[in-house]
Input
Amino acid sequence: MSQRTERRGIHVDQSDLLCKKGCGYYGNAAWQGLCSKCWREEYQRVRQKQIQDDWALAEKLQREEEAAYASSHGAQTQSHPQSSAPQPHPGHASMGPFSKFEEKKTNEKTRKVTTVKKFFSPSSRTAPKKETQEGKTPSPSISRHASFETDQVTKDFVDFLKNLQKPGREIHKQCRAFIVNMSSKKDLSADELSECVQDFYQNMADRLMSHFKGSSESVEQVMDQVEKYIMTRLYKSVFCPETTDDEKKDLATQKRIRALHWVTIQMLCVSMDEEIPEVSENVVKAITDVIEMDSKRVPRDKLRCITSCSKHIFSAIRITKNEPASADDFLPALIYIVLKANPPRLQSNIQYITRFCNPSRLMTGEDGYYFTNLCCAAAFIEKLDAQSLNLSPEEFERYMSGQASPRFNSSEVDWSQTGPAPPVTNPVLAQLNHNLELLSGLSSRQETLMEAAQSLQADLLSWPEGVQREVNNILEKYPLEILPREVSAIDANNMDNDNLPPPLTPQVFAG
Amino acid sequence: MGDDHQQVPGGAQLHRNTLSRPVRTFRVKMVLLGSSGVGKSSLALRFVKDEFRNTSPTVGCAYLTRVVHLNHATLRFEIWDTAGQEKYHSVTPLYYRGAHAALLVYDISKRETFIRAQVWLKELQTHYIPGSTVIWLVGNKGDLEEVRQVSAQEGQNLADEKGLLFTETSALSGEQISELLLDVAHRVYECIGAQQGGLSEWQETPFVHMHHRNTSNPLASCCKVGP
Output
């Protein structure tokens, strides 16, 4: 306050109060010493400049970015069919060199292409034409990717049928008619859809059988292609259809497997030793295969994934046990793999395969055997209880509710019931457990060290006391007696003088 | 202990050129049921032993195939091993769906496996219309005569009572194994092959062809083939 008044005193000069621009009006410190009018002008000017600078910078950045996109664009166009699926925004990354206007235009074009495609979808004759269009518009969304796959299958199918000449055309016509027919039956139940497809297979097989005069090999070959073509086309509408509760079951199974995350390899009595690198490699491959099943569209391809998964499991058991794996080993191992993998849409996939695969493949044959095992595994996981893991019901409940975990065996979990040692499922966990052991060893050593330090401290504290006490004791025992000291002046009281020889007296010698 | 079962045709001759004849091949699904440890897998391995001699070592013996030649047809056996542990019992029906033959295996030295076999039998019979599946009771581990707990007569009685066929085998020594497979093959062909569409045809792939030519197995010869 006092300062202000002081300043006021100083600023009393008129010229200081006026606008710095010299317009004659009074200025204001808040406006940097300008009057309101000049301040406004000045402010506008600065802002304008700022905006212009910003624009310039933005433009520069944009140019740089575009240049970067353009250079990466070349690489992208080459690999677009593979890299396209996960692009969330169609035609953004690959759109680099185009202006916004062009992007919009292409989007419209894309939309048009899909509608055109829908219109012609049952016809395969347009396939090659679409192929070229696909190349021109590098803006694939997920649906476009799917239709690309469909086109590819259509093309393959047509190529395959060309070898058969006239009957090939007949087969193609029937398949197309069937697909068109099926698309009008969307509201049928899943079982009815399955029946339609199976009937179609049966009719087709019968007709082929009479055409090829009983050569079942050729019939099988053609039927495989027919299945591939039809199921790729129908996949979207018949996989996990809305009329069923497949999706609910999928979610239930998924939740169930998640809740069972604590199940160890020992509880299932699986004879796979994951500490052997080769075994754990096979286990990982098996898990990958069973997960991959969901990405396939044709039932047979899905079956192949299951078979491949099973083969890896067999290898893993074979390496561990050094003898061929029997079903007694295989089924628990498969259950373990399914629990570890938690395959997406497991129930839907099983249902889809059951409904739309050639039935002879499911009941018999190697693929059928492994598929049956997978069904068993899924059924077992659904019903899994304490008894099937050799646990007591209380333990099972504890693990399910997450109150306890068999992996971190605390002292209150009694391992006498489940096993002698904490189960070690994989090398990483083994390492973890090892580290935990080391840590707990260290902490116990630390504790003893701390104890020793504390006792040392106590000792140190008591030591001076003890010394004090001792000193006191000694002092008590031998009290200090201060005897009056006789100050003996050398020349005072020469009491002993008598004993001393007489002082030498100087003698004069005459001499 | 196989004296009571001498059905193998005496005039069996070895012939290697079966495949040159236009004989239809049928696929037969055979399921092995029984408690864990009764020797199902060993039995399965025995069934196919000759065929596997020339191929790379098998990694698993849960699913195996074996071709058996009969007079008028060739049967391609697909042998499905099942998990015998009791906890998997509830899912076993999935395995024997569509099976043409089921071997119900028990261990003659363990009575409880015999009792479990009867439980399985009950289930099998509730699931199957008689005639669509050939069910065979098999007492395995015939080599363990000294610790036998289930007599051959008991097995035979059960089989008679339930209308099954019965054999005692030893997967260890191989006794009665090939005979059993042949008997099953005959039985399956008679009972099911005769029905229209009872068995589906199997187109032999070149792989099987090659295989078969290289091995001269005595089983291929159960039935005499006249020129």
Remarks:
- The two ends of chain A are 113 Å apart (CA to CA).
- Chain A touches chain B at residues 215-217, 220, 269, 311, 314-315, 317-318, 324-328, 330-332, 360, 363-366, 369-370, 372-373, 375-376, 379-380, 383, 387-388 (CB under 8 Å).
- The domain at 250-410 of chain A is CATH 1.20.1050.80 (Glutathione S-transferase Yfyf (Class Pi); Chain A, domain 2).
- Confidence is low (pLDDT under 50) at residues 1-9, 74-144, 410-421 of chain A.
